[in-house]
Design a protein that fits this description.
2 copies of one chain form a homodimer. Chain A has 2 domains: about 170 residues, Peroxisomal Thiolase, Chain A, domain 1; about 150 residues, 3-Layer(aba) Sandwich (Peroxisomal Thiolase, Chain A, domain 1). Chain A contains 11 helices and 16 strands. In chain A, the strands form 4 sheets. In chain A, strands 1-9-16-13-10-11 form a 6-stranded mixed β-sheet, sandwiched between helices. The first copy, chain A, starts with 8 loop residues before the first strand and ends with a strand. The model of chain A has no long low-confidence stretch (mean pLDDT about 95).
């Protein structure tokens, strides 16, 4: 009965295919190095809505529509949708889904949410629950900034370790018992790791230990090494967290640097775009994966990647109460072959 | 491959058993009619912590410990834990889990979260992913009140349609391929339903249409009727929402009233305890189910129940922006037999 390779990792017997993807980003993300890989962008961060929160919901809807149209499906074909975002009570997701008539499961994993939704959707489809599923996440610089930090108009200064919350939404459509690549072949569910970082402007260092724990466990439980992947890519550790993760693996005698990157580093040109340590937010890993990385898998530049979105599970209240930052990372293998 | 009875309902081929349960409540919940069914309570709503938020995390930890000890397991035996709560960024759950060394999946379904975690955990175990899982949720009157409404010290008046957020945590331990009752036999995943209610103090009327949609779909997809259940129990529609749900079913020619109740109605003595329409919060359905209803299943007063926690997916921001209240409900069948 039990099918795990280890406590945290499962190899999917019936790997689902990713049959549709959609990405919608803001102007700043469009101006970055991955510009040409995104489906659409908006000039004014409002997407025609009268609040940023409504704009973020609209981005999720548009990303889902794009992904469904690529899959040649409608929302009625979906057996379920898993979605999440950074806003209090995950409103971007539930408001985006309310017009869709789709069985809905809300998730919260902060910026790891695309990893969680891709992992859980794949496990459910592998278990025979449904034929098609959607995994959707988003973030928005303006909604996140005013919720977590200060009003935009205040113009608060950002320390060098800070990251820039991406205005971006990504959607993926999964098909059970996939017949065409890319496939989701393995899932590693992460534990919460908290090494005592208390600076809410230093997310990379807070999340790097969680990414290490999940990826190292993945190697241990699958018997694989970094060389088995064309690319290992974390969610949004940013440049500082990326360096720390490389160091952690060096300490274990493993050099991941040659085939490792981070979605937060890939999304922006840190120097020209003034984003300090790079991008972050649920939409960062979602859009970089659904836009750029999936395209590189499809054109066979990459054939097997370990995608590991990372999340910092703090809130402004916990920071005010002096708490450190618990973090989590979930890893998913996406491959052009079924193993 | 595909095992659904319908788009939303799955019959579990390998029903997991509920092998452990734990419930921790506040003083007011302890003073209510279900007092004797809870494991422990706290006099001062702080549980020895220096903030209400930390107290809510502590309640989750204590409920999980109690459930694990009943199951004669430790956290190291768990293959994963699914948890959620009402607080921004679901901090009660992630902070409770960070000391546990357990693969963690955070969920957000507002007060429906125990339905979502029980459903998803059961589906994963049924699919062969792991041997033991925990489903945990909580809410706390003081953390919820200051987050969603006004500071407690303000003493704001509550309209008659309001409900009282329960100070309560519930935890369940599930065993794959269960060998002893009660079993989780069916799962129905709900859609988001929003009938345009905008009053954030009127959650019952907002959530009743979602409960109806899920339960009615459950009957349709399983071919069952209300008479097939000893008890149909919603999460926390409260007395007003309960009446509305009975009306909705009457309109369809089905009388659920004789074997229908609501956890929000059961938890408090509405008249004596001044809770207006009854209890609410992620901890309400969790504690009433894990404490009272599970005991009645175990002593065979009840043999098959349809447990349907309900959630209102609003936030203070969406209310301020004039939005209506999207709601969701997930239903789970718990039975002393495997069908």
């Amino acid at each position: 009965m039990r099918k795990n390779l280890g406590r945290q990792t499962m190899k999917l017997e019936h790997p689902p295919s990713i049959v549709g993807h959609g990405t919608i980003v803001g102007k700043k993300e469009h101006d970055g190095p991955l510009s040409s890989w995104f489906d659409d962008y908006c000039q004014d961060d409002r997407f025609g809505e009268d609040s940023w929160e409504k704009a973020e919901s609209s981005m999720q809807e548009q990303a889902l529509d794009k992904a469904l149209s690529r899959a040649e499906k409608t929302a009625d074909d979906l057996d379920f949708m898993m979605a999440g975002d950074l806003l209090n009570q995950c409103i971007s997701s539930s408001f985006a889904a309310r017009s869709r008539n789709v069985p809905f499961l809300g998730l919260y994993g902060a910026c790891s949410t695309m990893g969680e939704s891709l992992a859980l959707s794949s496990l459910l489809l592998n278990g025979g629950f449904g034929s098609y599923a959607a995994a959707v996440t988003s973030s928005h610089f303006c909604t996140a900034e005013r919720q977590y930090r200060t009003p935009l108009e205040y113009g608060g200064q950002r320390p060098p370790t800070a990251q820039w919350t991406a205005t971006a939404a990504g959607a993926l459509i999964l098909q059970a018992d996939g017949t065409a690549p890319p496939y989701v072949t393995h899932v590693t569910i992460g534990k919460i790791v908290d090494k005592g970082i208390t600076d809410a402007n230093s997310m990379g260092p807070a999340m790097a230990p969680a990414a290490f724990d999940t990826i190292f466990t993945h190697f241990k439980e699958t018997g694989r090494t970094p060389a088995d992947y064309d690319l290992i890519v974390t969610g949004d550790l940013g440049s500082l967290g990326k360096d720390i993760l490389i160091d952690f693996f060096n300490d274990e005698g493993m050099n991941i640097a040659p085939n490792y990157d981070d979605c937060g580093v890939l999304l922006f040109d840190a120097e020209k775009q003034d984003v300090h340590c790079g991008g972050s937010g649920c939409g960062c890993a979602a859009s970089v994966f659904a836009g750029y990385l999936l395209a590189r898998l499809k054109n066979r530049e990459l054939n097997r990647i370990l995608f590991c979105p990372t999340g910092a599970l703090l809130s402004p209240t916990t920071t005010q109460q002096g708490e450190s930052i618990p973090s989590v990372a979930h890893a998913v293998v996406i491959s052009n072959s079924k193993d």
